[in-house]
Amino acid sequence: MDDRLIEAGERYEAAVFAGADDGLDAADRALDAVEADTALARGRIRHARYLSARADGEQPGEDETEIALFERALALYEALGDTRGAGEAQFWVGCYHQVVRGDMDTTEAMFARSRDLAEAAGDDLTRSYALRHLAFAAQHAGRTAEAHATLAESTRLRRDLGFAAGVAANLVAEAYFTAEGGPGDASTLLDEAATLAATSGARAVAGWVSEARTNLTP
């Protein structure tokens, strides 16, 4: 059992049987933290189902439960003063709006806040995700140089973390950026992405590599 649930149970018993009700606020905070973690995890599972359906050629609609879970997690983390959790939840709120709703404009501020919170918390993984999606927003706005630099920083963080599948995913995006006028060679980027996807077992990313080769072949 999660230690926080054990703590809440112990504080309940202390209040009921020993009259020590001074620990009930701490129990509430512990349960809020569990709820925040669970809401975030459930939202991510729903998002994974959305991506899976889209990869299968379906056109899934919006899932209001997904965004509600992410927003609930964000509100709880903020109330708890959990900077790391708030940074991750803020990313997923932005991701829902950008990926599911196709909002490439107003989400920049969400990802910028996620990036800043993650940096303050020392959470380089979440920061790499926020930077990746900030790059997409910049590319959409025609800020090609900024998009390339932002994505390159995300890739650097992922390399430092040993997140090979994430590096491969970024290299696919970099290949598209390169084809749209950015620096580098798309073929070389896709070659490395293919190798990293294969060695890390990222079969979905390997599919993105193959698709990119087809899309970017003159």
Short description:
The chain is mainly alpha-helical. It has helices at residues 3-18, 24-55, 64-80, 83-100, 107-121, 124-140, 144-161, 164-179, 186-200, 203-216. The model has no long low-confidence stretch (mean pLDDT 94).
Could you characterize the architecture of this molecule?
With 218 residues, the protein is an all-alpha fold. It has a single domain (3-161), classed as Alpha Horseshoe (Serine Threonine Protein Phosphatase 5, Tetratricopeptide repeat). It is 82% helix and 0% strand. Helix 1 (3-18) runs antiparallel to helix 2 and helix 3 (64-80) runs antiparallel to helix 4. It starts with a helix and ends with a helix.
- SSE order, one letter for each helix or strand: HHHHHHHHHH
Can you tell me the CATH class? Mainly Alpha
CATH topology: Serine Threonine Protein Phosphatase 5, Tetratricopeptide repeat
Q: Report mean pLDDT, rounded to a whole number.
A: 94
Uncertain regions spanning at least 5 consecutive residues: none
- In DSSP terms (H or I, runs of 4 or more residues), the helix count works out at 10
Could you say how many structural domains there are in total? Answer: 1
Helix content: over 70%
For this structure, the quaternary state is single chain
Strand content: under 5%
